[in-house]
Amino acid sequence: MNTLLNGRLTGLLALALIVAALPLVLTNNFYLDVAILAGFNAIVCVGLNLLIGYAGQISLGHAGFFGIGAYASGILVTSYGWPPLAALLAGAAASGLLGFAVAKPILRLKGHYLAMATLGIGIIVSIVLRTETGLTGGPDGMMVDSFRLFGVELYGEKVWYWVVGVLLVAVVWLSLNLIDSPVGRALRAVHGSEVAAEVVGVDTARFKVMVFVLSAVFASVAGSLFAHYTGLITPAKADFFKSIELVTMVVFGGMASTFGAVVGAVVLTVLPQALTVFQDYSQIVLGAILMATMVFMPKGLLPTLAALFAQRRQA
């Protein structure tokens, strides 16, 4: 237990050092922009990993909560003049309430039934964002004002890099603390066997709802900040394909691995940019890489590499 705890603390420190050191390596704003987008995806994936990796509950509609956060900030700040921080909190509250409202009935489902139910939530959110043109701008999206905090505008890639980097470290720290708490042990029990967990007194319904709401809030906060950073949001950020992309990042990095979720988000955000050299074949190459990784590393990228490293140390 102490070894595992020390490993997580070491990982958190390593993440903080990498975040602090990256600006020394990223020499232009394009690289910083990619790092920022990777950070947003990583924040969502850390929350989604709590739901999928630790609680064992699938969600194919999580991009909907990302979209709710983004459009809450866009509408409240740009159209109604709300302070950006208040709009961010309102979006997080709306996502949390929606997550709470739908979690209890749909989390009674299992397997592909649960997947279809969560997919339906995401589709409904996406349809609303596309059709309410007077409020959301419809398929073309809407412009979003900059983020101001205590009268100071957050502007430029360097400033936003530090905002996203600090938030990512904080979210990972919160996730690790949750995993090491009684709540985390309850989530692992739910994942292992709901019947066995209920026999020993775990309120499985309460813990599943709790982690679903928390992951929805993480996605909403990332969506709100993303909207202010890019200055433009479209319904595409809340559609089915974005949800699949997020789930793929979690599975690729390694389920039930907080740092694996971060690695998966970073790799699958950066990799498409690197594969542009293949031009028209970039998506084919990306698909081949994902297939090869899942075939030869079924537990995910980071857990497999960690296991190989441990075996070499023992050899």
Automatic annotation (TrEMBL):
Gene Ontology cellular-component terms listed: plasma membrane
Record-linked Pfam families: BPD_transp_2 (PF02653)
Superkingdom in the source lineage: Bacteria
Transmembrane segments: 31-51, 63-82, 88-106, 113-129, 159-179, 209-229, 249-272, 284-310
PANTHER family xrefs: BRANCHED AMINO ACID TRANSPORT SYSTEM PERMEASE, HIGH-AFFINITY BRANCHED-CHAIN AMINO ACID TRANSPORT SYSTEM PERMEASE
Official protein name in the record: Branched-chain amino acid ABC transporter permease
GO terms of molecular function: branched-chain amino acid transmembrane transporter activity
Membrane topology: Multi-pass membrane protein
Source organism: Azospirillum thermophilum
Compartments, as annotated in UniProt: Cell membrane
Keyword presence, Protein biosynthesis: no
Keywords of this entry: Cell membrane, Membrane, Transmembrane, Transmembrane helix
InterPro entries named in the record: ABC_transp_permease (IPR001851), LivM-like (IPR043428)
